[in-house]
Amino acid sequence: MREYSTLAAVDLGSNSFHLQVSRVVGKQLYPLDSLKEMVRLAAGLTIDKKLDEACQVRALDCLERFSERLRGFPTHAVRVVGTNSLRVAKNASDFLVKAETVLGFPIEIIAGHEEARLIYLGVAHSLPASDNNRLIIDIGGGSTEFIIGTHLEPNKLESLYMGCVSHSLLFFPDGKITKGAMKRAELAAQTEIQSITTEFSADQWQEVYGSSGTARALGRILKLNNYGDRNKTEGITLEGLEKFREYLLKVGDIRKIVIAGLHPDRTPVIAGGFAIMYAAFKALGIQRMHLTTGALRQGVLYDMLGRFHNEDMREVSVQQFMQRYRVDPAQAARIESLALVLGKQLLANYPDEEIAEDALRLLSWAARLHEVGISVAHSGYHKHSAYILGNADIPGFSKMEQMHLSQLVLVHQGSLTKVSEFLANPINLAQSIALRLAAIFYRSRTSIELPSMKIQADNGACELFISQAWLERNPLTETLLRVEIDAWAALKIHFCIESSSPKKNLF
Fold it and tell me: Are strands 144-150 and 207-211 parallel, antiparallel or unpaired?
């Protein structure tokens, strides 16, 4: 992949949006600029899980301001990720169309486990080297991530569906902080955490770190108000949380909170965030938590940097999935090799070289993973493969990339009519043609001597140029190629087989 001297990450969180710009020096990142705005997407989720108009306006206004700072950045030097609220919103796809138009860059929705992995990556790069197991807790606006890792490697990842915004709205909707409301908020959080207590209990880690806004806000409050630490050091203690709990119950109303260290923007969601943090301390046996500046956006930047240095987590995940689902490596390699030869021809004249490179990379992964479903059943295995790739936690991949992989492996054999919308995109069409043909030529699952092939396509036609003599010596392959003619005809795409050389590239 092409390298860049400056990278930018945008984190579309459920509480706030963040923009981080960093300079690249070798394998290190040095911050240049950062922007943050409270948008509170989670507060705009209606009962039927749709983003209301007001929160969409807030979000789009923020992205318009971010777009000015990102003006002139190459597409591949910016990565934009959406988290819990955009994962659960039923109208997220409609909002994303508007958001991408305003921002000027594509937006990825990442799964909870991927969010946790990126958070750990950002935190780990902000901490001094240590052999200790570290527990990271990140309370966001709509979800809370728990991670245990050593050095730069996360070992356990969990994402629970509770955050400072959603918890505040659910248990303190009128702003009143009563003993009953606080107890219910804490018990609800403890109930969620209970499902992970065995894996994240105190005997599994030696240090605890809190990342993102809630942890830092609580740390400032405890320090500036001398809650539980005479040395006023940065961090959070159980004793300090209990004193702040007493303060919240004494005040009794979010609107009346006036305390050193708490920014007005954080006040409306501090009760819900506190309840989650207090529950985590109690449930996991935490006595002290250190604070860190590392967070999701830094993890996104380091993940981008890794891709430029051939340390792409997606490549690692593909290899792990091949092993887990016992994919035949020889067959996968054969399919991948031919699919890439055909894909490069089909995309040779595509106007955006970097998009074409991304498409070939995704085609390579799809070719290696298209048979993961055989571990479920051979009959209809392409459907099983598509389900696995669309729904599994695959580190490094966004939800959209997973769905693209899922669609590609689904379309590599069988009927095409159910995926006509997917194939309307010329990139998807080129990838699908290449993968289908590779699967046809290697149906025997053996290494064969392939003929010289040329292929070209546009939205309405695809021509495969191949030796007629070779086809006559391989009647099964010829029959399968003839069947392809009817399969594509159902989509009004003219697929034909020619023996003469192509006169021009039609893409």
Answer: unpaired
Q: Strands, E, within 255-414: which ranges?
A: 288-291
pLDDT at residue 175 above 50? Answer: yes
Residue 297 near residue 20 (C-beta atoms within 8 A): yes
Residue 231 has pLDDT above 70, yes or no: no
Say which residues have a Cβ less than 8 Å from residue 391's Cβ, sequence separation at least 6: none
Average confidence (pLDDT) over 110-136? 94
**Confidence band of 506 (pLDDT split at 50, 70, 90):** very low
Give the confidence band of 308 by pLDDT, cuts at 50, 70, 90.
confident
- Evaluate whether 191 touches 178 at the Cβ level (below 8 Å): no
Q: Could you tell me if 149 and 239 are in contact, meaning their C-beta atoms sit under 8 angstroms apart?
A: no
CA-wise closest residue to 433 among 389, 491, 479: 491
pLDDT of residue 505: 43
| C-alpha angle 32-34-39 in degrees, rounded to nearest 5 | 170
For residue 29, give the H/E element and its range.
strand 28-38
Per the CB < 8 A criterion, the answer to whether 359 and 431 are in contact is yes
DSSP state of 499: S
For residue 473 the two structure tokens come to 């010596």
Contact residues for 362 (Cβ-Cβ < 8 A; gap 6+)? 401, 404, 405, 408, 431
In sequence order, what are the beta bridge partners of 45? Answer: 51
Sheet with 134-139, side-by-side order of all strands: 153-160, 144-150, 134-139, 207-211, 288-291, 236-237
Dihedral angle, C-alpha 278, 281, 287, 293, nearest 10 °: -80
Q: Which domains does the chain have, with CATH numbers?
A: 6-109+299-303 (3.30.420.40), 128-291 (3.30.420.150), 312-449 (1.10.3210.10)
Separation between Cα atoms, residue 174 and residue 35, nearest integer Å: 31
Share of the chain above pLDDT 90, in %: 88
